[in-house]
Sequence to fold (336 residues):
Amino acid sequence: MKQKLMSGMRPTGKLHLGHFIGVLSNWVKLQREYDCFFCVADLHALTTKYDETGSLRQNIKDVVLDWISCGIDPNISTIYVQSQIPQVCELHVLLSMITPQNWVERDPTLKDMAKILRNKSEKTSTISYGLMGYPVLMTTDILSFNAGYVPVGIDQVAHIEITRDIARRFNNIYNTQFFVEPKPLLTHMPMLPGIDGKKMGKSFNNDIKISDDEKTTEDKILKAVTDTNRVRKTNPGNVDNCEVAFKYYLAFAKDDEELLNQVKCECHNAKIGCRDCKKRLSNLINEKFKPIREKRLNLSLNQDDLKQIIDEGNKKVRIENQKILDNVKEIMQMYN
Ligand code: TRP
Ligand code: SF4
Fold:
């Protein structure tokens, strides 16, 4: 039997190339080796965007469309929506009872989220009780399957540490070995920067979406910063100072050593201008995403199929998670 793996993403809108390189391509590979459950974490989205629910339904669809078109196969893996699983809410309450308050307070990722919220407008600056429970809710997602493996980006590793701590604490308190301590699975790809060289993110307006069209992709890449010492085409460049374009080459042509050597050679000997170099890069990326974008378009025209995939996933997960919940309640000697 394959070992269980679970992971999730908040539905914040259409996914970008950073998601693809950092997390999604890893998920796609792992689904052959593990029994995978992929969660659209809409309750987690509510922890900060409780007042922006108007786009939530569309965002959930967009995330699932991106996942499937990038290669998550609903015939092999299970895709589901967190809020459709009442068992998650129930286990969350139980686990929140055994979680010391200072464990959530010292979670570094949560501290960052709280900081961003505080800097925003008055209206959204309230840090809710639900936000404090973010790591416990994520713990619940994982422990609801007793999943041993959680593939995530580096920014989520602190949360998995808390999950391991809560699992261990549960086992100690109730004198059991029921919960396994899950391990994070990191991709070996370094983080893909946004076109301005900073962290890629929707809110920074520096991202390229998986679902962007070819023209938009090219326009964005042509704006990307390059080796700033290369003022003129005749100045030799250095790929190590090319903070965006060359990093993208490394990510999207990682197995094409010949091309990478060519780019280096042409750059270092001033045989190509940055504009042409970036044109070649955007062609490469557009080629790579062509089948993905076509698949996405087809899927989006079949809303019924999409709904069926999600509904079936939800149904399966409710059954899976109920089994774990029953065990937990038995171990805790809850009223029955
Ligand atoms: N917190 C994760 C993120 O923002 C999403 C998430 C929710 C998750 N539940 C999870 C990731 C369980 C891994 C496992 O990306
Ligand atoms: Fe970057 Fe290419 Fe310009 Fe070199 S030629 S600095 S690799 S964009």
In short: Residues 4-193+303-331 form a domain with the Rossmann fold fold (CATH 3.40.50.620). The chain is about 55% helix and 5% strand. The chain has two domains: 4-193+303-331, 212-296.
